[in-house]
Write a structure and sequence with these properties.
The complex is a heterodimer of chains A (about 250) and B (about 525). Chain A is of the alpha/beta class. Chain A has a single domain, classed as 3-Layer(aba) Sandwich (Rossmann fold), CATH 3.40.50.11440. Chain A is built from 9 helices and 12 strands. In chain A, the strands form 4 sheets. In chain A, strands 4-2-1-8-11-12 form a 6-stranded mixed sheet, sandwiched between helices. In chain A, strands 3-5 form a two-stranded parallel sheet. In chain A, strands 6-7 form a two-stranded antiparallel ribbon. In chain A, helix 2 links the parallel strand 1 and strand 2. In chain A, helix 7 packs across helix 9. The longest helix of chain A is centred in the N-terminal third of the chain and has 13 residues. The model of chain A has no long low-confidence stretch (mean pLDDT about 90). Chain B has about 525 residues and is an alpha+beta fold. Chain B contains 25 helices and 12 strands. In chain B, the strands form 5 sheets. Chain B has a 4-stranded antiparallel sheet with strand order 3-2-4-5. A two-stranded antiparallel sheet of chain B has the order 1-6. Chain B has a two-stranded antiparallel ribbon with strand order 7-8. Chain B is elongated. The C terminus of chain B is likely disordered. The chains are: A alpha/beta (about 250), B alpha+beta (about 525). At the A-B interface, helix 6 of A face helix 22 and helix 23 of B.
């Protein structure tokens, strides 16, 4: 329900999705624990976004991720997202384990950490790309938000980590540029992220924005942090991929 | 003409049976790969080698392993009745040798005995009861068994099934199956069945077993060459055709089943024989094929039958059975001791789950590579010569190649292993090795954000010390997901064999040094 309200406040999904469009949704689906672990996007948020896209007339709605621990089928079943996708009328095209052969090498114009990255074609070929992350603690990156979630569209993660994680995340974001960011900050993991188990907090919030940097920036404040303290958010702001100064945008609390 | 066609039919039949078994063998070897349809008995041809059964008794130290080798036991039973028919009709390696022999150009044709030699052989009586012809294979057999008692497995060069299975695996990789190619080359350039007749230890075992059933009559034998000496014209055509150079169809004066321990019942002698009614291939007394071509003339010389009971001094390359058994016994004892010594020096290597006892593993593994073929992520790779012949081609777990997914694949490697080298282990009990972080090269320990290993670990065995990965020894299964995906050029987290990592953990020396740098 929250996701629908938030997107409606932006003017409804029809603003982003035109009839016949291929929509690709990228949740956090790479860990196996269900909605209460705070590591994966809540299945209900994923299914709400899918049905909004369907109602807006989307042709195909594809849900993708690169699952970290074993094969993606098992992963999508265990965290409940697979069932939610089926029920809402979407399809799963995901990747698992260490298979890095499925990506398409893509140039990153103006890349700081990387000149090119191997990105899944399904994401590159989408008409509309929506990042639907779980907001959570991340021991490596500080927080895992809409942009951190984008590491899961790359086939070769080593590249990102080897060349400086924060700038690398901003590099990827600059290529795939989500059209919409819907951040699930309902039940969040506040320690020992990204995989948990850690402390769980129910913030009962869903953030939606057409500016993925602003959405991440706002989410930082929910954890008592500033956008400047989370490296990749700050980097994206510096490069003008979006606004870290979310107050300059119109905020609607619903 | 009519009978000629019938005789060719025997040859065609045998080629067809060989081709069918070779095709089945290759199919099962390819098939072992995950995930295509998994036949429950996909390794039954690998368990067809009776020598593998004998060796396993010594290396597994359990008589019950014999049950797993039921195909070999059935084969041994048939061997007692029909000699080494396996070699001419079933053996995948033998089929390849025959194929090499079939395409051999005339210039490379192996020497064939002439009339004078055949006469000499006749006079000498050929092979005789108490002698072993082509004895090097028995020596090889004794070496294989002797070393097996000592815990060293030589099947990787001795068993035709293993050599052939590994060849299929290597060709699919693709890699060069040197041993297989070498043996086929020998068949092509020299005698097609040189390996089988002179060296094959599995063949030697079958020769010994067939000696046990030597006196059984043709009517109880599923496949037997039968002679009628009265019809024999002693031309020597049978001897010239025989790939195993068995003289018995030429020299035998007994009516009935020929029971040379090296005869493979291939029936080539029956086909070659021009004398009607002299030779026949029978099954339980039923004639499958008979010799004789209308209007045929003896091929070489016209030898007169010699008097009955002319078993003479024997050929040049034979030794007595008694001497052989004595020397083989002494040799086996020496080899067993040698094997024990070799085994003791085995340094630990990363292996698949259920193979952490390195000494037991190298004794049991016959290096057929079925497990490497079956491994879904392909994390097993045959070792090279880096640890010597002793571990050549044994499958090593290479985490950097791919992590082990024992918790997802149901131990695919174990399910195809024909020799008990890999034990079944409950997923919760698996301890392949233990991961160790190299703090000098780890991105996180050098102050860069990275948690790839932590994210990949399915067993929550990596905890964080101020955003830096630390391995929880009690939880680490050694699956290697971390090593596989570590972003640094050389993995900064590596799985070490248990005994090696235990040494590193307790030995303060190396650890202290590492921390200082």
């Amino acid at each position: 329900m929250l996701a629908r309200k938030a997107v409606d406040a932006l003017g409804g999904m029809g603003r982003f999705v035109k009839p016949g469009n291929v929509v690709v949704i990228k949740p956090n689906a790479s860990f196996m624990d269900g909605p209460h672990g705070g590591t994966s996007t809540h299945p209900s948020v994923v299914s709400e976004v899918i049905s909004m896209c369907r109602q807006a007339g989307a042709g195909r709605v594809i849900v993708t991720d690169h699952c970290l621990r074993g094969d993606y089928q098992t992963c999508f079943e265990k965290n409940g997202i697979g069932a939610a996708v089926r029920a809402a009328g979407g399809e799963v095209i995901a990747y698992g384990g260490s298979d890095s052969s499925q990506g398409r090498v893509t140039q990153i114009p103006g890349g700081v950490a990387m000149r090119q990255a191997s990105i899944y074609p399904v994401v590159l070929d989408a008409d509309v790309f929506i990042t639907v992350p779980k907001a959570k603690h991340h021991s490596g990156a500080g927080l895992s938000l809409g942009m951190k979630n984008l590491i899961g569209v790359t086939a070769n993660m080593s590249n990102v980590h080897n060349n400086g994680l924060h700038e690398g995340i901003a590099d990827i974001a600059s290529v795939v540029r989500p059209d919409l960011s819907v951040i699930d900050a309902s039940i969040v993991l506040t320690s020992n992220g990204p995989g948990g188990p850690g402390q769980i907090k129910d913030l009962g919030t869903v953030i939606a924005s057409s500016d993925f940097v602003a959405a991440d920036s706002y989410a930082c404040t929910l954890f008592g942090m500033t956008p400047e303290s989370v490296g990749y958010v700050a980097a994206a702001g510096r490069r003008g991929l979006g606004k870290t100064d979310y107050n300059s945008l119109k905020i609607a609390n619903v | 003409m009519k009978s000629g066609a019938r005789r060719r039919r025997l040859n065609i039949t045998r080629r067809a049976v060989q081709a069918a078994f070779l095709a089945l063998f290759v199919l099962l070897a390819v098939e072992a790969a995950y995930p295509p349809l998994r036949l429950p008995a996909s390794n039954f041809l690998l368990r067809l080698d009776p020598l593998a059964a004998v060796v396993s008794i010594f290396t597994v130290h359990r008589l019950s392993v014999i049950a797993q080798f039921w195909p070999a036991l059935v084969l041994l039973g048939l061997t007692a009745l029909s000699g080494r028919f396996f070699c001419a009709w079933i053996c995948p390696l033998g089929t390849c040798f025959d194929a090499a022999g079939a395409v051999k150009p005339k210039a490379l044709r192996y020497y064939q005995p002439r009339g004078a030699e055949i006469r000499e052989l006749r006079a000498a009586g050929g092979q005789s009861g108490g002698r072993l012809r082509r004895w090097p294979k028995y020596v090889f057999l004794a070496v294989v068994i002797g070393l097996a008692i000592g815990g060293v497995n030589l099947l990787y060069i001795g068993s035709p099934m293993v050599v052939a299975n590994r060849a299929v695996y290597q060709l699919l990789l693709p890699a060069v199956p040197f041993l297989f190619i070498g043996l086929v080359l020998v068949a092509f350039l020299y005698r097609p069945r040189f390996w089988c007749d002179d060296l094959c230890p599995t063949g030697a075992l079958m020769s010994l077993v067939s000696a046990a059933g030597k006196r059984l009559p043709a009517r109880v034998s599923p496949l037997a060459v039968v002679k009628e000496p009265a019809a024999c014209i002693s031309c020597g055509a049978c001897f010239k055709r025989c790939d195993f150079e068995v003289a018995e169809p030429l020299v035998s004066q007994r009516v009935g089943r020929l029971a040379s321990v090296d005869c493979t019942q291939c029936g080539e002698c029956v086909e070659a024989c021009p004398a009607g009614g002299a030779l026949a291939l029978e099954s339980f007394g039923l004639k499958l094929a008979a010799s004789g071509k209308k209007g045929a003339r003896p091929v070489e010389g016209r030898l007169r039958p010699v008097a009955d009971g002319a078993e003479g001094a024997g050929g040049k390359f034979v030794i007595g059975r008694r001497e052989f058994i004595e020397s083989a016994g002494v040799g086996a004892v020496l080899l067993a001791g040698y094997g024990v010594g070799l085994r003791k020096t085995a340094a630990p290597v990363l292996r698949m789950p259920g193979a952490q006892d390195e000494q037991a593993f190298i004794a049991r593994c016959n290096r057929c590579e079925a497990c490497a073929r079956a491994c879904p992520p392909g994390c097993l790779k045959p070792m090279g010569l880096d640890s010597g012949l002793q571990k050549l081609w044994t499958p090593r777990f290479v985490p950097r190649q791919a992590g082990c997914v024992f918790d997802q694949c149901g131990q695919a490697c174990q399910s195809v292993c024909p020799t008990h080298a890999i034990e079944r282990v409950e997923p919760g009990q698996v301890r392949i090795g233990r991961a160790q972080v190299n703090k000098r090269t780890c991105l996180a320990w050098r102050g860069n954000p990275c948690l790839v290993c932590y994210e990949r670990c399915r067993f929550n065995a990596i905890s964080l010390d101020r955003e830096r990965p630390v391995v929880q020894a009690d939880k680490c299964t050694g699956c290697g997901a971390c090593e596989e995906t570590c972003p640094t050029g050389k993995a900064s987290i590596k799985v070490l064999p248990l005994s090696a990592s235990a040494r590193n953990d307790s030995g303060g020396g190396s650890r202290g040094r590492r921390n200082k740098v």
